[in-house]
Specification:
The protein is α/β, with parallel strands linked by helices and 219 residues long. The chain is 42% helix and 15% strand. The protein contains six helices and six strands; from the N terminus they run H-H-E-H-E-H-E-H-E-E-E-H. It has a six-stranded mixed β-sheet. The chain is elongated.
Length: 219
């Protein structure tokens, strides 16, 4: 840069300010453009890393239940208060309503089927609240869930799959009654085996355990 500045000074010696400006724009416009682009890229990338949306520390999706954003936000707020995690880094989302083999949902966004399994394959799901039928469908799709013997589940009722406890039974969890559709099927809380936030999974189990009006159904 110093070389360019020295060169400009030598070649514009004796010119007026207007003549210097014209000379610089004529012969150095591409240098100026390069510097401007570089500065913009630095600003964009710095803004992305410093102020961009951060990935969740815990992600839970609720599949084929009543969509209720206010309920989801309340669960995230309560979980954040108990766990000490920042609420804006917790994602609880009940927009995942879609059809799958043997189950046909009406008037839903079927793209969420692909989104669900894409997020699972990318290790973006830490927990899933789902009906037993969809749990079994996931298993047929080679989905695996964490062995809950690795966690402290207290006295929560557990669901066994091949002799291994892989889910918590939420069927009569009255704290969040809007999870229920008209027909009450067995509802499970399970943790995909490739989720990245094991500590946060235990914290979410602790949150479920702390629900004073939890009424479990034996698996």
């Amino acid at each position: 840069m110093n070389r360019y500045i020295k060169d400009i000074r030598e070649k514009t010696a004796g010119m007026s300010k207007g003549e210097k400006a014209d000379y610089i724009l004529t012969y150095y416009w591409y240098h100026i453009l390069g510097v401007v682009v570089a500065v913009l890229l630095i600003v964009i990338f710095a803004g992305h890393f410093l102020f961009g949306e951060k990935r969740p520390l815990f992600s839970c999706v609720i599949v084929n239940r009543v969509t209720d954003d206010s309920r989801d936000d309340k669960m995230a707020e309560e979980f954040a208060a108990q766990s000490g995690l920042p609420q804006d880094r917790i994602s609880i989302d009940s927009n995942y309503i879609f059809s799958y083999k043997g189950v046909r949902m009406q008037g839903v966004n079927e793209s969420y089927y692909d989104k669900f399994f894409l997020r699972w394959s990318n290790s973006e799901l830490d927990a899933v609240i789902l009906e037993e039928d969809f749990y079994k469908f996931c298993r047929k799709m080679d989905g695996t869930f964490r062995d809950l013997d690795e966690f402290d589940t207290g006295t929560l009722p557990l669901y066994e799959d091949g002799g291994v406890s892989t889910a918590i039974v939420l069927t009569d969890q009255e704290r969040i009654p809007s999870l229920w559709n008209t027909e009450r099927k067995k509802l499970l809380l399970a943790f995909p085996n490739n989720g990245k936030h094991e500590t946060e999974c235990q914290q979410f189990i602790d949150y479920i355990k702390s629900t004073s009006d939890f009424i479990g159904e034996e698996a």
